[in-house]
Amino acid sequence: MGTRKKVHAFVRVKPTDDFAHEMIKYGDDNKSIDIHIKKDLQKGFVNNKQTDWSFKLDGVLHNASQDLVYETVAKDVVAQALDGYNGTIMCYGQTGAGKTYTMTGTTENYKHRGILPRALQQVFRMIEERPTHAITVRVSYLEIYNESLFDLLSTLPCVGPSVTPMTIVENPQGVFIKGLSVHLTSQEEDAFSLLFEGETNRIIASHTMNKNSSRSHCIFTIYVEAHSRTLSDEKYITSKINLVDLAGSERLKKSGSEGRVLKEATYINKSLSFLEQAIIALGDQKRDHIPFRQCKLTHALKDSLGGNCNMVLLTNIYGEASQLEETLSSLRFASRMKLVTTEPAINEKYDAERMVKNLEKELALLKQELAIHDSLANRTLVNYDPMDEIQIAEINSQVRRYLEGTLDEIDIINLRQIQEVFNQFRVVLSQQEQEVELTLRRKYTLIDKNDFAAISAVQKAGLMDVDGHLVGEPDGQGFGLGVTPFSAKPGKKAKSKKMFKEQLSTSARKEGASSPVGGKDLDFSTSKTQLTPSSKEGDVKDMLMRDRETSSTEPLPLDSPKEELRPPRPSTPPPKPVAFEDFKNERGSEINRIFKENKSILNERRKRASETTQRINAIKREMDMTKEALNFQKSLREKQGEYENKGLMIIDEEEFLLILKLKDLKKQYRTEYQDLRDLKAEIQYCQHLVDQCRHRLLMEFDIWYNESFFIPEDIQVSLKPGSSIRPGMVPISRIVSLGEDDQDKFSQLQQTELPEGPDSISFYNAKVKTEQKHNYLKTMMGFQQAHRK
């Protein structure tokens, strides 16, 4: 397990024109807030009410951008999640203080996106930077509304409405929501689509404090699973990131809530009160019981609040004097949260399938090493595989011959054989005991010595003497088993004994006749019959093979046509777009294939050029930063005084390292710039090839279209191969333009026109798709309602 660490607590102040500068003061290190309230003189001079508070936090964000908030609060938590650590980021505060804006942001402006979409972007970018790992990402979106659980992604076609209500379940692995759908996302755009889909399903309402107030607690969870591509280790890591957007606490006299909104506010305040009770209990080291089950919110966040994860709280507050009472309450909650400790640890699991493969590989290596040792010891080839039925029958035969005395010793080859020899000894012994018992049961009646009723009956019949000895028992030391049959006569004792001995010898001879060797031969014949296919089956297979060869080599009939009959010409020519698709699949397939290949190469070169450009820009920014640092060091050196030795300027180590770094960056910049120039030349050449193929494809299509649908059929005979007219000699009437694909135009437009650059493409694509989907659903619902009317 990892070391215990405290929860990080940050505060974000909502920007306002009416900021209470006299009442709210920030510390010099931006890690503390001091609150001062003037005394109310109307209550008298003797007034012991507290007027000053000081709160120490991990950071205060005032007039901070969304970028700065994410870099300060969430970036490290998300980065550690890909290393196997769970993480939780929670936004808490008064209604209207900016929790949803901080967590989700606005979908209208890419720059104003919140922690959640930025976390998704960081996860997928880090996956691209780790090609040695196969990483899968899944997401879920849970809503807790009026103490009921709802799946915000249940409107997707692949999920559908649930019949049974969702419940919170605990197991040794942690807490999970039974019935909550989890969706696999392979790219950034899919994750944004799921996020926007869930956002449209959230419940909001309006009151005097906030026009778009969230009426529920929402938990967006990112599940990460990473397997190594290079190592054959069966261990893999899993983690999850809980991004919690809590509903805001309300004072009903300020919000003016009524009806349904009032009921929602009651549930919200109640759950936040239970959350604070759980936080107080977690902060008290003497408390044994933590009340997690008081409400659904604390129960669902049990792993996050007191578990093995990195926990960060972001408290949103107002900076206005009118909201100072609620601000104090939120800051108290943040201070209590800082007392809570968690124990982050890497979540390692074992892949059973990969473990089996590793064990099989290790077994094969051990067998190879055994074979090497056997060859070095001049031992014959030894088989270490499990024994089959034939080998077990052979060992059984050897054991029987060893017991009969016909075999002096059993050759020991390996450990498996030793174990099987002892096992066969047990089998033979058990069989002999059963045979002896059956023989005795056929000749004698067995009586239990403890059965007094049977013994008295035997004594009355004269088969047992007064001392309790059986008839024929020498000195009282008999088997305790043999009792002569009631039909036996006293005068025939010696004869019966002689007959018994002869029967034993006869049975022994019978056992020898059916014993080990004969049994072995029988087992061998059975095994051969099972392994070797019958002659009839072999004949059938041979016949099938001959039939196939005959059918494959059989020549076609003489009257069969060598060419496929030409389909009849339609009365009216098909539209050119339809005909063009047919042409690309038939006569123009080769040109179309070359066109697509050149186009794919062109797109690949453009992508590489875009990546190279981004790297050049990054190097340029780093060069500028290094130059600034170097100039600062030079100015500092000039202020402190320069030192010279034999006409050479003496500089410190830090300035020297900056000079070396700048030199290396300039070298990288020149290399990347040369690569970019080469790529641009390749792009120009590939564009020329694509244009040529496009022109050739158009020309060939026009020739084919005219020859197929406008030339009379009697003239088409002369256009066949070997005739005097070549394709292309027929005049062209019209040309169908083959411009760039719509997708190419759209991608180029995005890269040139989007103000935030290519990074925002997936964000806007997901937004557009979600809006189109919901507009379509609204239109269809309108049509259905109009049809019903």
Automatic annotation (TrEMBL):
One cellular component (GO) term of this entry: microtubule
Localization in the cell: Cytoplasm, Cytoskeleton, Flagellum axoneme
The keyword ATP-binding appears for this protein: yes
Record's compositionally biased regions (Polar residues): 524-535
One Pfam entry name: Kinesin
Chief location: cytoplasm
Binding-site residues for ATP, renumbered to this chain: 93-100
Pro residues bias locations: 568-577
Listed Basic and acidic residues bias regions: 536-551
Recorded GO MF terms: ATP binding; microtubule binding; microtubule motor activity
Residue ranges the record marks as coiled coil: 349-376, 602-629
Entry's Gene Ontology BP terms: microtubule-based movement
Its job: Essential for normal male fertility and for progressive motility of spermatozoa.
The protein's assembly and partners: Interacts with HYDIN.
The family this protein is said to belong to: Belongs to the TRAFAC class myosin-kinesin ATPase superfamily. Kinesin family.
Protein name, as recorded: Kinesin-like protein
